[in-house]
Every structure is written in structure tokens, then in C-alpha cells.
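Design a sequence for this backbone.
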């Protein structure tokens, strides 16, 4: 009986000393815990106040557009980094930073796998930020990117939204932008419209050439464009002359309207001159410097 009593008392003594040790450790840890939580709370509230204040200033002084959107996105990124800094500092004050680093180290393999899987996603995000910083193009610009030509509707974190000439909406991953050359046609004050036409081989080619030049020069005078009109015969085959017609329009001019107006003018003038015009083969555009 005495042995059982002594063994029971020893167990009770072990539990008591263990609880007492935990209590002393907790009592010693409590000030650091409170200080760490206070620091984290201050960083959290401070990041919110700083981000809201910065966004208000950006909305006040920056015009609407990609510049403001990119700046606001950067504010959100810096807010996250600020809170992350506060988290590390709080854990250091509480003496738990070693636990965090051990946890991060255990995630090393998973981090490598996630990095490979998310590589394209991260590349698109940073490319979207760089577009805003570099200002290569912005919403409203007319560009040629990844074999697509159209007007930039929106530049997001992951994709750039493009409205093509035929009204289609194309979403292009931002990482594509810095992996291949692209053309910002709006960056030039003028852009060149190129029409590939066909006329029968038995017509007066000189008259056809002069008629087209005359009509497009009248159009240039109307639109106050100084660039010359070019009408070149590229080849003769299958009973047809192939003509390459190029003229300039202002970058702000609607490409579809300019093309439509030019084709109608050429068609009507050649019809009045007794020259039949076969349907245009193709239409393309370029910066005026590239003509």
C-alpha cells in the first residue's frame, strides 16, 4: 500500500513540476508575446493606412489609365511586403523565428515544385508590371503583338486585352510581350496602309496608276497628310496586273474607316475611267517609318 502511495505521489510531483515549469516559461514568454503581437498589429494597421493614403493620392494626381492601375498594383505589392516584414519582426521578438525558418526549410522541395509550376504565371505578372513602368504601350494604343493587330483595351496582371480590327477580343499572356518584338503603331504620328489590288492586263496601266494616285493624294490633302502615295506594279500573271498601293493616315484615324474610304474612292475612280477592279487581295498596316 505504501509503495502504491509513494508511486502515486511521485507521479503527482512530476506533473506538478512540469506544470510549474510550463507556467514559468509562459510567464517569461508572455511579455515577448504581447510585444510581438503589438508590433504585428502596428505593422498591419500601418500598412493599411499607408496603402489607402497612397491610393487616394494616386487617384488625385494621376489620370485614369494604365499608369494609375499599375501604380495601385505596386502599392498592393509593397503593402504585402510591409506586412511580411512586420510578421518576421514580430516572430523575432517572440523568439519564434527559428521555428519559422525550420518550417520554411521543410517546404524547400514543395517550393521548387511550385516555382516550376508557377513560372509562367509569375513571368506574366512581372511582365504586366514592367509594361506599366516601361510605358511601351498603353490602353488605347494600336499595336501589333504576337501575330495579332488591334487596339489595346486593358493591360492586366496576367494578360493584355486586344480588340482586333474585326472586333474579336484577344487575351495575350504578358510574358509574350518581352519574349518577341512587337510594334506600337500609335507611337508614330502616322501609319502606312497597304492595299494589294488586281486589275486586268488589257487596261491602260499608266492611267490606272495615275487615277489611284490622284484619288489618294486628294484624300491626303483632306486629312492633312504630307507623305507621298505609292502605286507600284509588282508582277503580271494570269492576265492580271498586281498593284501595291500604299498611303499614310494619322495614327488616331480608324484603320477600318481609312481602308474603306480608300477602296471606295479607288473603285469609283477606276469605274469612271472604264477600268474594272478585281477584289483586293490583302490589306496590311505599318508605321510610316517602315514604308
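Sequence:
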Amino acid at each position: 500500500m505504501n509503495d502504491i502511495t509513494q508511486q502515486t505521489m511521485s507521479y503527482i510531483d512530476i506533473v506538478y513540476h512540469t506544470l510549474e515549469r510550463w507556467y514559468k516559461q509562459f510567464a517569461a514568454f508572455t511579455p515577448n508575446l504581447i510585444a510581438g503581437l503589438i508590433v504585428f498589429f502596428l505593422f498591419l494597421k500601418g500598412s493599411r493606412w499607408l496603402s489607402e493614403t497612397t491610393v487616394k493620392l494616386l487617384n488625385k494626381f494621376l489620370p485614369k489609365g494604365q499608369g494609375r492601375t499599375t501604380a495601385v498594383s505596386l502599392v498592393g505589392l509593397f503593402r504585402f511586403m510591409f506586412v511580411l516584414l512586420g510578421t518576421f519582426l514580430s516572430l523575432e521578438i517572440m523568439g519564434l523565428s527559428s521555428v519559422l525558418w525550420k518550417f520554411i526549410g521543410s517546404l524547400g522541395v514543395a517550393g521548387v515544385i511550385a516555382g516550376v509550376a508557377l513560372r509562367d504565371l509569375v513571368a506574366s505578372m512581372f511582365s504586366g508590371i514592367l509594361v506599366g513602368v516601361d510605358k511601351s504601350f498603353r490602353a488605347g494604343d494600336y499595336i501589333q503583338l504576337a501575330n495579332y493587330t488591334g487596339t489595346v483595351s486593358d493591360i492586366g496582371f496576367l494578360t493584355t486585352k486586344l480588340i482586333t480590327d474585326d472586333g474579336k477580343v484577344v487575351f495575350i499572356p504578358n510574358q509574350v510581350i518581352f519574349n518577341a518584338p512587337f510594334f506600337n503603331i500609335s507611337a508614330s504620328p502616322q501609319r502606312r496602309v497597304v492595299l494589294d489590288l488586281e486589275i486586268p492586263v488589257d487596261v491602260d496601266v499608266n492611267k490606272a496608276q495615275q487615277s489611284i494616285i490622284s484619288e489618294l493624294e486628294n484624300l491626303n490633302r483632306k486629312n492633312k497628310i504630307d507623305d507621298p502615295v505609292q502605286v507600284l506594279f509588282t508582277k503580271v500573271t494570269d492576265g492580271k496586273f498586281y498593284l501595291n498601293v500604299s498611303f499614310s493616315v494619322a495614327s488616331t484615324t480608324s484603320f477600318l474607316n481609312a481602308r474603306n474610304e480608300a477602296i471606295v474612292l479607288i473603285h469609283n475612280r477606276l469605274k469612271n475611267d472604264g477600268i474594272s477592279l478585281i477584289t483586293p487581295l490583302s490589306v496590311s498596316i505599318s508605321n510610316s517609318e517602315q514604308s
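The chain has three domains: 2-94, 141-184, 190-273.
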